[in-house]
Fold this protein.
Amino acid sequence: MKKKQKQLKDLFLLDPNITFLNHGSFGACPKPIFDSLVKWQKLLEREPVKFLAFDLFKYLENSRNSLSSYLNCHKDDVVFFPNPSTALNTVIKSLELNAGDEILSTNHEYGALDRTWNFISKKKGIKYINQYISLPLKSKDQFIEDFTKGINDKTKVIFISHITSPTALIFPVKEICDIASKKNIITIVDGAHAPAHIDVNLKEIGADFYTGACHKWMCSPKGVAFLYAKKSVQHIIDPLVVSWGYEAENPSHSQYLDYLQWQGTNDMSPYLTIPDTIKFLHENNWIQIAKESRELNIWARDQIANQLGLELIADENFIGQMSSIPFDFKDQINDQLEFYNRYGIQIPFFMWNNVPLIRLSIQVYNDEKDIHRLILAMKDFMNRKRI
Ligand SMILES: Cc1ncc(COP(=O)(O)O)c(C=O)c1O
């Protein structure tokens, strides 16, 4: 491990006895960013009323300003949420949908959001379609052909992950948003895994709605996500929790912000760490870190596939810092726990459309030794399961 990489690794609060190969699920926060959280929490507790009643919106604006520069959008088009599910539930429950309308998605979406759409579908009599994307994924054209077969006159919304959770694939969302906008179809992009993992340029992507998590690959403290909405669609958003911003006594210039920024008393300190989080990413040349982590990930998935005789599900153009590889376990929960307890390796197992997958995440604190340990563990695990 290079000196600079070792210095960065030492900033993370992770248990040194665990081989941590699951940055993807909840991220991990380095000390300087965690210290920023404590700084904000202490300021809050010193004078809670001044902080929450007088100063909070100014602090939030400063944070939105940083985040919007990072994502290339206007500061008033982005609002903080504790997680992508809450942001997406806000959008999904606001949409005016009628019986027979269709929502086109893929068969690679995050299970909690599939459930949100199933819930709305039952209530409104709409159809949620998980379009089949054939694997191995070899080209953008193959993806676009598979996906767009699902578009018809009833399609009102396209919902698609930027980087998928179970299969860890980068989908060509800009191309899909371009196609959708020509057909007047609303686009909602689930970018939970994208910021600081790949470049996220919201103006360029052109989605109507985009959500991302900051606590995953941006390494912010837990409980920071955002919703971006294009100006032209902000008026359709209802607050998920109706509070003071509805029928506001002193409305601001933006109903969207009024409805969403205050949903009752809450500790918003994690949101306020975003300027420090982004400063940390810039100071440590995170674009280069992400590039090197991706290279290690590509090498690792090849090693795993070759040494264990496993299949890869996509060409490397669709891969960032995560790889999902088919791996023959039987019982997702118990086998993952057994893997953790036996080998001290934190890595998720997913049962995805009846395909068992193991998902590797690579962050700055990982190196080749972690991959050698993983391969030995996977071999041993396979041998044991054969007995
Ligand atoms: C693709 C994707 N979307 C949405 C989410 C939602 O995250 P949360 O459960 O924190 O809202 C996740 C979480 O891992 C995810 O991977």
